[in-house]
Predict the structure.
Amino acid sequence: MTPSPGDRVRVERSGVTDEGVLMPSSDEAHLVVKLEGGYNVGVDREEATVEVLERGAHDVDEAGEEGGDGSEIEFDEDLPTVALISTGGTIASTVDYRTGAVTAQFDAEDVLRAVPDLAGRANYRGRVVANMLSENMEPSVWVDLAAAVADEIERGADGVVVMHGTDTMQFSASALSFMLDTPVPVVFTGSQRSADRPSSDNVMNAVCAVEAAKADCAEVMVCMHGSPSDDYCALHRGTRVRKNHTSRRDAFETVGAEPLGRVDYGVDDTAVSFADKPRRSRGDADLAVAADLNEDVELVKFTPGMDPAAWDYLDGADGVVIEGTGLGHVHTDLIPRVESLVDAGTTVAMTSQCIEGRVCDRVYDTGRDLLDAGVVEAGDTLPGTAKVKLMWALANADDPADAMGRDLAGELTEESRPWT
């Protein structure tokens, strides 16, 4: 009896026996079996003996999801329209059973089929800007992404959800925060764990992100698990968020402040609430795009014992962000290197390696010497956000150095204003 997707099967190979539901496979050389615990396993067809235990035990669609046609989403005039923009990442990934690696290969339409819980919450338009793992993200993709988001808003989208890999999501969210004045929510979301894992966070994050995209808010946010449990997602401002854990589902945190809000997750009732009034409510701003970037910006980290020659590669850069110690310090021997960069026309901004707090180079002699050398204080702007901000400021601000000390997109907290 030839097995088909949806059959319950017993697979034997090399003395190992597995039982589960046969799933669709991305290639003809491998079988994919969903085990009782929820994990998928890939098996070489030629090495396996397959016994069908129950024909048609589960209904699965071509994307490998149980439920078949239940994920179809039809237009409803009473629902808002949410644009789903995919850049790849784990939330839009599957397992390559030739290698066992997770690869990004689903487009936005596949995500809709993979998350049937999205049905009935909105009307959707799917769009693919890129299909990459987020470590391969480039500033040029941010430009394309900003243009795609703006286009969807111009076409009448009531909100936008950007599906993105988690490793560099904070950079992309920061970039769009500076590049866009948006009249609707723009919500980044992703998944720490791929859909084949029973602990995957992809469904809840996607559902909560869609609900956030329908909310009365108009800024760029990140929506990810707010706790290890499937109870709520936190909404983080795009310029204040940081991924603080490699694998936990609640890896993302707002640094130096409370999250903007939360989305309480429920099968029948998913509610969005904000801790404080958002910077902008829906419709407060007209859509505007300033997507130019100067990519000639480097982010460097000072460490004790660093050879000043290690910074020679910075010569000629248009911008440099330093991640200094404490209030914003580097070794005294590096100050002449900083001064030579500034004298050559490089904008040099100082941030701190500390997780919270702002730089202030007027407290110690080293800091005062750095200010005399021409360093610009970036307050409590997160180092990664500061790099993106300087790329944007060099291309769009009349005085990039002055812009680095001003709050442009919520990157500086109220407590980070200069000491008096």
User: Anything to note?
Assistant: The domain at 297-416 is CATH 3.40.50.40 (Rossmann fold). Confidence is low (pLDDT under 50) at residues 61-73, 416-420. The chain has three domains: 8-54, 68-289, 297-416. The chain has eight helices and 23 strands.
